[in-house]
Design brief:
- The protein is mainly β and about 110 residues long.
- Helix content is about 0%, strand content about 50%.
- The protein has no helices and 10 strands.
- A hairpin with a 6-residue loop joins strand 5 (about 45-50) and strand 6.
- The protein is globular, with a radius of gyration of 13 Å.
- The N and C termini lie far apart (about 35 Å).
- The relative contact order is 0.32.
Amino acid sequence: VQLVESGGGLVQTGGSLRLSCAASGYDIDDHAIHWVRQAPGKGLEWVSAIYSYTSNTYYADSVKGRFTISRDNAKNTLYLQMNSLKPEDTAQYYCATPRLRYWGQGTQVTVSS
């Protein structure tokens, strides 16, 4: 299993970014997959998930209404559209399989105030 995140960067407060996670060896349309993040000096924080079959989506309260998780089954790629970004969203973002069995190298998101 390989998960490769991309799309991070530096953005001002209120800006937007779209993160991508290209998966190989793991069919994201057959399994749940998550976004988690880790801010400097803090532990891992679960952000969002999308589940197989039902395509139900779930969000942490801290991002609800601002972030949208989606996937492209044909590309086996997961996305996280992040709008109205805040400085507290600054973190390394990872896509991860359930129970963090597999996760990628992450992509850095920095939101300046």
